[in-house]
Give the backbone structure.
Amino acid sequence: MILAPCIKFAFVGGCLLVALISGFWCRDKKDWLCLVGGLVFTVLSDAYLVMEQEHLSGVAVFCFVHVFYIFRAVEISKKIFAAFFGFVALWSVLLVLKSVIIFAMLYAFLFAVNIFVNYKTRRPKLNYFLVMAGLILFALCDINVFLFNLPQYLGVPDFFPSAFALIWIFYLPSQIFLAVSAIRYRGIRNSFE
């Protein structure tokens, strides 16, 4: 059924639109720009994964989502730019190898770094909660993606039939939380005090 993927894809596109509009009320321009960059790559990735069922391209592009979310949490410096260009070179070599498994491992590594650096980053409480809740739900989504796809790669029967539904139960709220995580919330007790 083509309608369900279109609705899911439109929802993720809507989250990007919300994040773009939130730029008028963002608390930090660099944080907001990195969030929007991450969501642009999320939409591109989902175009491959949801609409085209193209796993290699989807996972490869999704790696950049976590690079942008890592940039949200770290000070941008010459070393970070050098590391980014090193990442792009590695990504390009891996793209030639055309292995979903290798990209999935790179993706998992970047996601782990993303969660770690964002966990350590000091933000106003509500923004911190939104980022961390979004990333935790995102991780739960990806665990279910793994459980859903594992039988295909192992050549065994589906052993966790609920995984596909759980992917979307975790993924959609994660994108909402992330989409609104750069807003400056006024009038709410929102500090680390």
